[in-house]
Design goal:
Strand 5 and strand 6 form a beta hairpin. With 317 residues, this protein is an alpha/beta fold. The protein has eight helices and 13 strands. The protein starts with a strand and ends with a helix. The strands form three sheets. A five-stranded mixed β-sheet has the order 3-2-1-4-8. The chain binds zinc ion (ZN).
């Protein structure tokens, strides 16, 4: 008997990861190709479709039901990838339609953070939770808002760009061309910017001063904080305070049962969660106090993007 399976695809600036995922969230087979393997999207889609067919044939005993795709600036309504700054393809790429033609299977596409939220909903800690928010704290800050079991896409298909709410008017420059966006503070790169600003503004000793500034990343800030370094701990506290503000602002809009955090910065564990919960408690509107939890995502970081895209396919197809 052949078992139904879906393919999850995560399109990244450098690599595109793809895998076959069963209904329980088990990855049967997976692989990656370079996203710039073909300079034109058409060529790339042909190659990728071929690779997926190959993977299904090699796995044996499975029938491909459909495909889910997570992509930067992915538009859920149109199935397009639009003006993605980190991809070489320019303009608006009707990716889902083209993939559908190549594979002759249904294809559904959204942005990577929304796909991660669906992954949390179908395979992770949000199972059975109808209202939750997922924030991914990586190079930037991505988000997925789930209200009454549905991801909020908005009429444009681009809703949930929470990394680009203005936290500090006239603040840090952001890749979107504006200033003071949440992701310039609350992300793996944001905390490094904070640590470097503190090092410039302050005179106190820090373990971080022993490191070549070009090499400082969020992991090294966490390592210094773990050793009790005051400046690094303060960088975590500042990051947590801005993130807490963003969370309490979101909570008054959608009243989630849980806020899941995912991504590189979340590996710092209690260095982030302790000050975050402290600031949230202080800043939250009283009627919402203790109505929601802040939790690490339960989806393992390896293959999370494939699982998210696959979960979208299982949910929608
Ligand atoms: Zn921005």
């Amino acid at each position: 008997m052949t078992e139904e399976i879906v393919a999850g695809i995560d399109i990244g600036g450098t690599n595109t990861a793809y895998g076959l995922v069963d209904k329980q969230g088990k990855i049967i087979a997976d692989s990656t190709i370079d996203t710039d393997k073909s300079p034109e999207p058409d060529g790339f889609i042909k190659i990728l479709a071929g690779e997926i067919n190959k993977l299904v044939a090699e796995a044996g005993g499975f029938k491909l039901k459909g495909v889910g795709i997570g992509a930067p600036n992915g538009n859920y309504h149109k199935g397009t990838i639009e003006l993605a700054p980190n991809l070489t393809w320019k303009g608006i790429v009707p990716f889902a339609d083209k993939m559908k033609k190549e594979l002759n299977k249904p294809v559904v596409l959204t942005n990577d953070a929304n796909a991660a939220a669906v992954g949390e909903m179908i395979f992770g800690g949000a199972k059975g939770i109808k209202d939750f928010i997922l924030l991914t704290l990586g190079t930037g800050l991505g988000s997925g808002f789930v209200v009454n079991n549905e991801v909020v896409y908005g009429h444009t298909g681009f809703a949930g760009e929470y990394g680009h709410v203005t936290m500090i008017p006239g603040g840090r420059e952001c890749g979107c061309g504006r200033k003071g966006c949440l992701e310039t503070y609350a992300s793996a790169t944001g905390i490094v910017r904070t640590a470097k600003i503190f090092m410039e503004e302050r005179k106190d000793y820090s373990l971080l001063r022993e490191i070549n500034p070009a090499l400082i990343d969020s992991k090294l800030v966490a390592e210094a904080a773990e050793k009790g370094d005051k400046l690094a701990l303060d960088a975590f506290d500042y990051t947590a305070e801005i993130l807490a503000l963003a969370i309490v602002n979101a909570v008054v809009v959608t009243s989630p049962k849980a806020v899941f955090l995912f991504g590189g910065l979340v590996k710092a564990g209690n260095l982030l969660f302790e000050p975050l919960r402290k600031h949230v408690d202080r800043l939250i509107m009283p009627v919402f106090r203790n109505t929601f939890e802040i939790l690490p995502s339960s989806i393992p970081e390896t293959n999370a993007a494939i699982l998210g895209a696959a979960a979208l396919a299982w949910k929608e197809l």
